[in-house]
Specification:
- InterPro entries: ATPase_BadF (IPR002731), ATPase_NBD (IPR043129), Euk-type_GlcNAc_Kinase (IPR052519).
- This is ATPase BadF/BadG/BcrA/BcrD type domain-containing protein.
- This protein has 289 residues and is an alpha/beta fold.
- The protein is 43% helix and 20% strand.
- The protein is built from eleven helices and ten strands.
- The strands form two sheets. A five-stranded mixed sheet has the order 3-2-1-4-5, sandwiched between helices. Strands 8-7-6-9-10 form a five-stranded mixed sheet, with helices on both faces.
- The longest helix is centred in the C-terminal third of the chain and has 23 residues.
- The chain is globular, with a radius of gyration of 20 Å.
């Protein structure tokens, strides 16, 4: 018997969980580590399990209460059907489980199941929309080849600029000095970081870059201005699909909202709910978007 609903969001930076009863009354929430299932499936499973455990604990429920839960997980990386199947087969112990993409739950939450489009800007970036039964997607293929304007891409550009400034190939600034010092203060340390950094590690530098850009740092402003153009290109592409409203979501959404060209403002929609609301909405419907 299902007595509880659990919505879970697995992204490149963290995992989040929200627990409600069948009537939708919120009971508990939890967080975990990075949970991009496409990059590290076992790590994502561990992070999602930790978030679920915390949500149950804050609700005062024992682990065996999972057998009375229907859960929906929206995770990065599960656009690959094989990865989705492996995540769905993980031994979470839920009564029922549906796995969808993180974009699907974000869209569901933003428009409460209605038509519209979202532009997610956090560790990665992706545009995703729905008109009736039709879905459309742009971006979200990983920072090595896609994800323009994302935190991971901004972080990569900042570290490259910091190294160039150190070697006299570019003008130094407060931002380049801050990035250089934060990563160890030597070219060797920056190189070591670059060889092992995850998308979340790169993205962790993005707030520093935005802060310096807002303070007038020329190097930071150049990076953020280029990133804003990439976000606007994604926004434009969503509009060409016929949607009349786009909700900005993700950890960097507020940073970009004030930087968008005026022509985009009439199309910016305030999201009704967040990705966890979307996951719970799908759980209420038995997992079907």
């Amino acid at each position: 018997m299902v007595r509880f609903l659990l919505g879970m969001d697995g992204g490149g930076s963290n995992a989040r969980a929200r627990l409600t009863d069948i009537a939708g009354r919120r009971l508990g929430e939890g967080t975990g580590g990075p949970a991009n299932a496409g990059n590290n499936l076992q790590g994502a499973i561990a992070s999602l399990d930790a978030a679920a455990h915390m949500a149950l604990s804050t609700a005062g429920l024992p682990r065996h209460a999972r057998s009375e839960m229907f859960a929906v997980i929206g995770a990065a990386g599960v656009g690959d059907a094989k990865v989705a199947a492996q995540l769905a087969a993980a031994p979470f112990g839920f009564h029922g489980l549906k796995v969808v993409t993180d974009a699907e739950i974000a869209l569901e939450g933003a428009f409460a199941g209605g038509d519209g489009a979202i532009l997610i800007v956090g560790t990665g970036s992706q545009g995703y929309g729905r008109i009736g039964e039709r879905r459309y997607r742009v971006g979200g293929w990983g920072p090595a080849i896609s994800d323009g304007g994302s935190g991971a891409v901004i972080g990569r550009h900042a570290v490259r600029r910091a190294l160039e400034a150190h070697e006299g190939l570019a003008v130094s600034s407060a931002m380049t000095a801050a990035v250089f010092d934060r990563l160890g203060g030597s070219a060797v340390m920056l190189s070591a970081f670059g060889k092992t950094a995850s998308s979340a590690d790169w993205a962790a530098l993005a707030p520093l870059v935005f802060d310096h850009a807002e303070a007038g740092d020329p190097a930071a402003d150049t990076i953020v201005a280029a990133a804003t153009l990439e976000i606007e290109a994604l926004f434009d592409r969503l509009l060409t699909e016929g949607t009349g409203r786009v909700a900005l979501m993700g950890g960097l959404a507020a940073r970009y909202r004030t930087r968008l060209s005026p022509r985009f403002i009439p199309f910016v929609a305030d999201p009704i709910g967040d990705a966890l609301d979307g996951a719970l909405g799908l759980a209420q419907k038995g997992g079907e978007p």
